[in-house]
Amino acid sequence: MAFTDDVQNKAEELKGKAKEAAGKATGNEQAQVEGIGDQIKAEAGKVGDAIKDAASTIKDKLTGN
């Protein structure tokens, strides 16, 4: 997995946590939901990156690289 992907996913996760916390503090339910959505998006990015890495590893093993 590329370092930049890791950084982007972590930034998205932290943004989501901050937005969720701010929403809770102010009673803004929409901000809370958006924050949770950002965190889910970050997790989905992590899963997608893991799948790409696994596919690359399998390809390398099958082609003998």
From TrEMBL:
Domain CsbD-like: 5-56
Family annotation (SUPFAM superfamilies): Hypothetical protein YjbJ
Superkingdom in the source lineage: Bacteria
InterPro entries noted in UniProt: CsbD, YjbJ_sf
Coiled coil: none
Family statement drawn from the similarity comment of this UniProt entry: Belongs to the UPF0337 (CsbD) family.
Protein name as catalogued: CsbD-like domain-containing protein
Organism: Propionimicrobium lymphophilum ACS-093-V-SCH5
